[in-house]
Design goal:
globular
């Protein structure tokens, strides 16, 4: 009779579990944090496309008002399906609303689901308010519940003082953080920044440079309008305009590439967002829309 010998697999090391947690936290963290990664990670030097010398609409980093004929799609809710590696990681929602007094409000949620949620649950809410006339961000609020972490963060932009103010409370141990940073006369944030780009003309071959702040040092972001593509997502098939954001400077190198696909129509809604990083590819695909 043939004998079979069972081989005991080695127990995963503490380093393995730390790396797994980091991968899950990065892939399932709230959408606003993913957007910060999209904008903050410089693109890999070895993968620069042939469009590197695209003309720039303005050489100076600045926030520009939307074109006079652009209308933000108020009452619209965008629902996205998040995919990481082989799993459906969760869903995210954006809702655009008129906040009154020429202000625009974007509210949203990010929720993990399925197998990934069992490993690293995420339940997050966020809200961004900006001036629709100037595109200047006014505030952004984030309530983040990720794994064992639970935080409430409020960022205000004081243009009279040229300061951003971050107040953050750790809801687990009640630790409080308060920091201020210098800002220019107008900035966008990681949530409203997506819709700021969508409000631009998005002519293939152009590029835009603008300041972005998330409560820390202000980054200059370059968004290059690369091409027009047809994209299939759960919500349907869309003619889109593909753009590639990147930071103009930063200490992190060779970490991946990022793209956002906007609908090729008057609204320029984000249809798909993708970050290809060392830990894998994270994609947000438009699942459905709701109009009030």
């Amino acid at each position: 009779m043939r004998r079979f010998h069972l081989t005991r697999l080695p127990r995963p090391s503490a380093r393995f579990w730390r790396r797994l947690e980091v991968s899950l936290r990065v892939s399932l963290c709230p959408l606003w944090w993913i957007l910060l990664l999209l904008f903050a990670f410089p693109r890999a030097t070895a993968q620069q496309p042939a469009t590197e010398q695209l003309p720039v609409v303005s050489n100076a980093s600045a926030i520009h008002p939307p074109p006079p004929n652009y209308q933000f799609p108020n009452g619209l809710t965008l629902i996205y399906q998040a995919e990481w590696r082989l799993w459906t990681a969760g869903t995210a929602r954006f809702t655009l609303e008129d906040a009154g007094l020429n202000m625009q409000r974007i509210t949203g949620t990010a929720e993990s689901s399925g197998f990934v949620s069992a490993l690293y649950p995420v339940h997050d809410r966020f809200q961004s308010v900006f001036d629709r006339r100037t595109s200047c961000s006014q505030s952004i609020n984030k309530h983040a519940e990720e794994g064992f972490h639970k935080r409430e963060t409020l960022i205000n932009f004081n243009y009279a003082r040229r300061k951003s103010t971050l107040d953050e409370t750790n809801l687990k141990n009640s630790e409080v953080k308060h920091v201020e940073y210098d800002i220019p006369g107008c900035v966008t944030d990681v949530v409203s920044g997506i819709f700021y780009v969508g409000a631009q003309k998005l002519v293939v071959g152009d590029a835009y440079i603008f300041p972005l702040n998330d409560g820390n040092k202000t980054l200059d972001v370059i968004v290059r309008v690369e091409s027009k593509e047809q994209v299939k997502v759960p919500a349907g098939v869309f003619n889109t305009i593909r753009v590639a954001p990147q930071a103009s400077s930063g200490v992190l190198k060779d970490r991946g590439r990022v793209w956002i696909w906007y609908s090729d129509d008057a609204r320029h809604i984000p249809v798909q967002m993708r970050a290809r990083m060392l830990w894998g590819t994270l994609t947000f695909k438009l699942l459905s829309t709701e109009q009030k």
